[in-house]
Amino acid sequence: MGELLKPYVISNVGMSLDGKLATIDNDSRISGEEDLKRVHNIRKNVDGIMVGIGTILKDDPRLTVHKIDAKIGDNPIRIVIDSNLRIPLNARVLNKDAKTIIATTLKDTPNKIEKINKLKDMENVEIIRTGIEKVNLKKLMEILYKKGIKKILLEGGGTLNWGMFKENLVDEVSVYVAPKIFGGVGAPTYVDGEGFKTVDECVKLKLEKYYPFDEGIVLEFKVKK
């Protein structure tokens, strides 16, 4: 079997020292202005930016390049993983600033079919369907690669990050660690999901670079394959 042809995936995250993406009340003010600019520079240099539906429902982001000097053509394609098609039709990620791909499953319900038809009527929106209960991330990567998307910035929450790491689809990790402790057993972490059972199974990283940034530190790793 041939090697999987897929985009190069950079997982970027800002987290507290104890690995949280937000507090128990979903306060996610982690990155300072300079770190936001760092992330937008990465956005400017990739073909696509990927998030899960949880990020859309919680933050309603635009997922464009706007913290640095940029023109509309610098915006990457926005990719939303949305197995049950929960995306609101007025979500900002569906605006005309860039193309948006919504990845959902092959499973149909009357409401889903109706929503797909409404989304298809929108300018710059494309639907990709793969997987039955959950989006098949490996298959999706193959489809995106064939569409010319060669580099993706993954700005997922803990659930999507787990799915991508579990399927060995991440190539690089860039983390801003803020000098803050959030605590909270229910607070979202960088990677959630089922988790690996043993150290032997886990994703292993090679530290490439680290430097002080804002009040914290940036760590850059390559994923060992």
UniProtKB/TrEMBL annotation:
It catalyses: 2,5-diamino-6-(1-D-ribitylamino)pyrimidin-4(3H)-one 5'-phosphate + NAD(+) = 2,5-diamino-6-(1-D-ribosylamino)pyrimidin-4(3H)-one 5'-phosphate + NADH + H(+); 2,5-diamino-6-(1-D-ribitylamino)pyrimidin-4(3H)-one 5'-phosphate + NADP(+) = 2,5-diamino-6-(1-D-ribosylamino)pyrimidin-4(3H)-one 5'-phosphate + NADPH + H(+). Its EC number is 1.1.1.302. InterPro entries: DHFR-like_dom_sf (IPR024072), Rib_reduct_arc (IPR006401), RibD_C (IPR011549), RibDG_C (IPR002734), Riboflavin_Biosynth_HTPR (IPR050765). Residues 7-219 form the Bacterial bifunctional deaminase-reductase C-terminal domain. Keywords: NADP, Oxidoreductase, Riboflavin biosynthesis. The keyword NADP applies. The keyword Oxidoreductase applies. GO terms for molecular function: 5-amino-6-(5-phosphoribosylamino)uracil reductase activity; NADP binding. Homodimer. Belongs to the HTP reductase family. PANTHER family: 2,5-DIAMINO-6-RIBOSYLAMINO-4(3H)-PYRIMIDINONE 5'-PHOSPHATE REDUCTASE, DIHYDROFOLATE REDUCTASE FAMILY PROTEIN (AFU_ORTHOLOGUE AFUA_8G06820). This is 2,5-diamino-6-(ribosylamino)-4(3H)-pyrimidinone 5'-phosphate reductase. It comes from Methanothermococcus okinawensis (strain DSM 14208 / JCM 11175 / IH1).
